[in-house]
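Following up on my earlier thread - several people asked me to post the actual chain instead of describing it. Fair enough. Here it is, all 165 residues.
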Amino acid sequence: MEQYHQLLKEILGRGEVQFEPRTQEYTLGISAHQSIYDLRQGFPLMTTKRVPPRFPFEELFWKLRGERSVGSLVKRGIHIWDANAFDHYLKRNWLKEKFPKHSPEWNAEFERYTHKIAEDPEFARIEGDLGPVYGYQWRHWKKTDGTEVDQLQNLLRSIREKPGS
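Reply from S.P.:
Thanks for posting it. Predicted structure:
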């Protein structure tokens, strides 16, 4: 954790303002920083929040299943992708202008949205869709000829059949 805090101090001291077009957010960052951690001292989870170990494991299982919707995560009490799904929901339904990000109206609509995701599986399937996120692409990579490749299955087969490759 000390290395992480030192990095944060360095970013605050000499970081550069960077704009991320995908999220429409400005961040303060340092390019190409590398950290090295001794795992004998613990797992380097980069946060100052308390994170139950179940949370990152549930997210990993969600990715391994190749899911796109936050529905199954919400059902398990994992809410780390809710805001991303909500942003997609606003865009898909032309509500982005109606609910400016982090305004009281946005907060109220986000609260309604997350309750509905938790209560209505069909709403969660459709409106909780994040698009082709990491895990989905692992399991459903589209080739130029239109066919799909399950990269995880290919990896597992390769490990079994050619472990030295």
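The longest strand covers residues 16-20. That should answer part of your original question.
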